[in-house]
Amino acid sequence: WAWCIRSGDPANQPRCNGPQALADAVIALTARQAIRLSRMGRGPGFIRFNPEWFHVESDLVPEADSLTTAQDLFSRERGELGLG
Length: 84
Known about the structure:
- By secondary structure, the protein is mainly α.
- Helix content is 50%, strand content 0%.
């Protein structure tokens, strides 16, 4: 996707579709959460997958069990990155 934007050629299209990109994001977020839990000493970092994470219509994410928790998490992350 970034390559398509950088090249500036409208003929260039992303190499993966939305559902595939969502699945990649779920895997990355879940791995990040598992590593964080393991480093905090809260178990071996095992995460039970939720099939709803892979549904485009779902607001659930691996790092939060509700939309409110997800919004709080994203707000905190934006703050830590200096994005306000």
